[in-house]
Each structure stands twice: as C-alpha cells, then as structure tokens.
Amino acid sequence: xxxxxSQLVKAYDVxxxxxxxxxxxxxxxxxxxxxxxxxxxxxxxxHDMRPSSPGLSRAFARGAASRGVDVTEIGLCSTDQLYYxxxxxxxxGAMFTASHNPAQYNGIKLCRPGAAPVGxxxxxxxxxxxxxxxxDSGAPEPVATPGSITRRxxxxxxxxxxxxxxDLTSIRPxxxxxxxxxxxxxxxxxxxxxxxxxxxxxxxxxxxxxxPNHEANPLDPANLVDLQKRVREESxxxxxxxxxxxxxxxxxxxxxxxxxxxxxxxxxxSRELARNGGTGTVIHNLITSWSxxxxxxxxxxxxxxxxxxxxxxxxxxxxxxxxFGGEHSAHYYFRDFWNADTGMLAALHVLAALGGQxxxxxxxxxxxxxYAGSGEINSTVxxxxxxxxxxxxxxxxxxxxxxxxxxxxxxxxxDWWFNVRPSNTEPLLRLxxxxxxxxxxxxxRDEVLAIIRS
Length: 454
Known about the structure:
alpha/beta, 14 helices, Alpha-D-Glucose-1,6-Bisphosphate, Chain A, domain 3, 4 domains, about 20% strand, globular
C-alpha cells in the first residue's frame, strides 16, 4: 500500500508523528531516495535526543548505504552542528529532529553539500515521489557494493569553528543562565562555552525528548518564564534559551525582559559589518523591525528585504553574497557558516558585545530597539483571501500609504507599518505591526484585527 506522505513532507522538511505517520521502514526508504536524488557518494547524518531519533537515523543510514553511499554518523547533535559537518566535510546531510514540536513528533532536515537546503523545489518533491513509489512496489534491489556506515565525533570541531568567528577571550566575566529545555543545547553549550570567562548556570541540560519541564519552544512566552525567574534569582547578566534542536536562540536581559530578535539581528549585523570592514549585504525578512535596515545602513551595509522563511533567506544570502541574515523567529544566518542558521553563533556575538563593555544588556540593546511592535498575532479565519482583500480595500485608497504583496500584504505609512500573511498549513492569518510609539501601534493593530476577525 502506498504511503500517504501529503501530511508528512512539508515545504522544507519531513515532519510527523511517530509511529502513526512514519516509522523506521519509511525512514529507510527516505535514505535510499535521498541518495538517489542527490547523487551523493557520501553523506553525514545526525539526530537529536527524541526517543525515536536514533532508530530513525540508523534506518535512514541503512537505506542510503543500500544505494552504495558511505554514511558518516555524528550521532547526537544540534541542527547547526549537522550543518557544520555538512559544510566542513562538504557532504550532503540529514538531521533527525522535530525542532520545537512535542515529543511524539520527529522529522528530517535535509541539505546538500555545504549545508545547502533541500526543499520542495530543490529535491524534496522528487524524494517524496520515490518514497511513495517504493512503499507501493518495494524498494529497489541493493547495489552490488553497499556503502559503509562509520561514526565520527564533530562536537569539538564545531565548537572550535564557532569560537574562531567571535573573539571572547578578553570579555569581562559574565554570569549566563542557559535554558536548554532538555534539548540539544544541553549537549552543545558546555563544549562551546568551555574555557570562556563565563559563569554558566545550566537549566534543563538533561537530554530528554519527552520535555518534562516545558516545551522546547522559546517563541512561546510561557516557555521563558523559568529562565526569566532564574536570571533574576541569580543576578545574572543575561539569559539564553534554545529550542529543541538548538538552532534558535532567544535572549533575556538581567531583569528577565525578553530582547526582541530584531534587536539581536541589528546588533549582530553591526558586528558582522565591522568584521568585514564596514561593508556588506545583510538580509532581513519583511517583518523584522524598521530598526534592522536602519542599523545596517548606519554601519555601512546594504539591507535586503526578503520573504519569511529560511529557504528565501538562504537563497538571498547565496545570490547576494550577504555576510549575515536574521529573522523575527530568532533564526540567524552567517556567510562564514555556509549561509546556514546557527543560534549559537548569534549567542556568542551577543556575549562578546555585552562582555566588551560595562553597561547592562538592556542599555546595550536599547540603541537597536527603537520602535513599538505587536509581535505576531494569529487569527483563525474561514477565508484568508477574502480577509486580505478586505484589508487591501480599507487601506489601499489612503494618502501616503504604500502596499506591497511580497509575502502576504504589507501596508506602510510614515509612522507605522503592518504585514498580514496567510499560514501555509493552517486556516490562520498572521499579523505583525510596528509604529513609532505604542499608542499608534495599538491603534493600527486593533483596526486590522477588527477587519481580520469581522
């Protein structure tokens, strides 16, 4: 019977419930299909701490080896550690993780050599078609000479590469609370931070894919509460929260107040521009703060606005030769990390900036946090297109207002802007609004929400 992959294969990765939607037999077919579509002779695989991850990862390796591909398994790793291995070893890669999703989920993030992403338009559709075909008719016979499966530890090399990109040797001592959420930050942080002038206060570093303390999704404010409390209790300088596969990093200041990812994007952009002689292109998606392109220009760089989503950011990074890119969701991309996203490298930049001067983090980031933002507000709607049309009609005829449809609908005026984007997977509209003051932002936010929810 042909497997139904319509709910499993997403735009940029594979993700679903184990064993209801997929299991090790399907993972083996994915490995064989990945080998055939990429034409790779060797690949690298890694996995997170979910209970199903080791078995799925090994099944994928067996499938790839059955097609004659040599597999290097790096075992437990963060997603950006897998990207490091793909880049440093110049191998196609597969990371087994469901990121911040609940424990019963698992997935695969795929890349070509040099951590180049694999999505629907770059091989994932062909991989899905082969898996569907083989699940119906049976996988092809193994090749005469199967590939090997070997182990390799890349954690120390990954940490050394990151530390080579940010100089932390001369910073003042910092007390840093890190909430790993029982995810892969508990695996990578001790090695990356080793030898640095950091008093590390670990929270939930025990690798546990059942997430016993809270979901490993720092984008939800409820999952930052423990970190905020601990930072205040410890009189720490800063708090860091990683998601389940530790490719995103969220920051709170010494008072426990969250620092917006847009402010972090602007801060890191200014540092990366300084590293590159005050010149270079910086990518930002269209719902990051106005402050991001402003700071980029002030520091000699060229901002480039793009759609939301890692595939669009990475595509623009490659096309423009950008040195850095950032998103509102706390994904940070670096040219010196094969254009891939790594929250850990962004965290090191923040620590270097904080430790390189005497002011608290709140003062340091104030220069990058200039406007009042709504954050992302989701609304369930029956007809996304109809509500977008209604918003366009309400604002399209106003003087001194511009509209663009690069990604959903963005409406901009001198003192405010907002963007409304439809979800690709749910009947939702996502609103982000920003203005020069809180009162204006609140007014615009509530006006648009009234139209969306009418």
